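Lab notebook page, bench 4
Experiment: in silico fold of construct C2
Operator: M.H.
Input chain length: 464 residues
Purpose: comparison with the prior construct
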Amino acid sequence: MTQNTQHTSSEATSSVRMLIVGEGQFILDGQVIPVAAGSSVHQAAIAHIASQASGVVQVTAVDDGGTQQLQVGPDGTVTSVGTAPVPPAAESRATAPATTPTAQDTPQDHPARTPYTDRKTDTPVQQSIAAVAPEEVPQSRAERRASVTFLPGADEAFSGMTTPTKVGGWHGFLQSIGLEKRAEGPTPEQITERAELRAISQHWAGPRTITMVNPKGGASKTPTAVLLAAMFARWGGAGCLAWDNNETRGTMGWRTEEGPHEAHVRDLLASADELMRPEARAADLAAFVHHQTEDKFDVLRSNPHSIAPEERLTTSDFDALHRVASRYYRLIFIDSGNDESAANWLRMIEHTDQLVVATTTRPDHAEAARLVLDDLRKQGDAAAQLADDAVVVVAHADQDEAPSAEYLARFEALARAAAPIPYDPGMRAAHLRLDGLRPDTQVAWRHAAAMVADGLGQQRAHTA
């Protein structure tokens, strides 16, 4: 493959092509093209484009490192034109415009919040408005002596890293052929990525229950539960459970990998007492949950068969299941049903440490999300605190929709944070997998997971 740093205007340029690079494959103008194991996906993509070119091809190239504008010649010559304009999917992840919402949109007691804040430092990782430095209070000599240390704390050591990480994606590919200079230190994007992955990778003392709610069906509760569980399991390690707490027939079992059995929540409930005995082993749980071999978490399915009203889960049933889940898992992601009056729905809220409101950009889904926050806030006490500290995940329902900045601005006034998820055909796949999503979608889920992680530092008091 040859390289070039300039492209003369005398060369004919063919139509623009859209290239998205993923794990083991690339997508060219909507066509998925697999790449042999061990081969460079970026090099394979360039070679494929060159083999079809009759002249210089203008390429908009996307991967998890960002978007690049390239020119590819028939002989494999690559020219870096520079960073491309922010595409709609990326634009939707940007901070909402710094305009003040109208009075009816922003209650005085719930001002808009920054997208993600590290609670250890109370400092936003990404912030569009510079924070005002607090006035320094002089320390006494004794206080200064007590604070002296020559060892960096964990946060200081982490934030002080200056060695650039290995650069992947288009930046790494262009550096490897000499079209980009290697960075002297980590880029702002890499610093943000490190901070978010570090937040997601934390282990907290005691189990945490993260609940997905929206009373409307099809509002993306199941994808949100599955993909958040995948993100935390991939980066934080084992001990993550995705639980379908639907009062009737849920869909999580249909959209995730099936284990060597067909067990569901009723089977686990029948064995709950045995699993709580001192001699019970963690491996015994494998007979009841379905391990996701790629994304490293387990799934507890709802009953896939039609059930009579008297067979629905009761409050005591939910408590028994949650005791088992809390004994064997550190993070429990619950996909709720659509009936807010169901006993298992109400009890689920009482066990929740972090509320996640899932919605799409459809107005009826968004309105249902607003109403469930409003209803919880009216209950006061713990339920109101859950609503105040909620994270709203806003998924694009259609690829032709405009960026969701308006939705984000409104939800940031109603909850702690709001995270946009771009439209992705992988979200509609039969089986949900992180690697089945486009790179920019995976980054969006990482942002959302970091927002959720920021609310897990303090375990809430729950009803026994």
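Observations: The radius of gyration is 24 Å. The first helix runs from residue 41 to 52.
Next step: discuss at group meeting.
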